[in-house]
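Listing S7. Sequence submitted for prediction.
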Amino acid sequence: RLNDGFLQEAIISPTITLGIRKELTELDVAFLTDLGYEMAAAPVPEPSVILLLVGAAFLVLPRRKR
């Protein structure tokens, strides 16, 4: 399968190239489906950056003592 003009290697391939991220190919999805796994239709949403910053601010900022 072509990915950005380059041939994508299947995840089940026994080689790992440093600095290269592998993504699921049609072959990977097919063998995982054969093994009984179900593929999610959409990726899980990540929390927004603002929510993470607000949460970090509550943890880092000193609290007022009464």
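Caption to Listing S7: primary sequence and predicted structure tokens for the chain studied. Helices lie at 26-34, 49-60. The first helix runs from residue 26 to 34.
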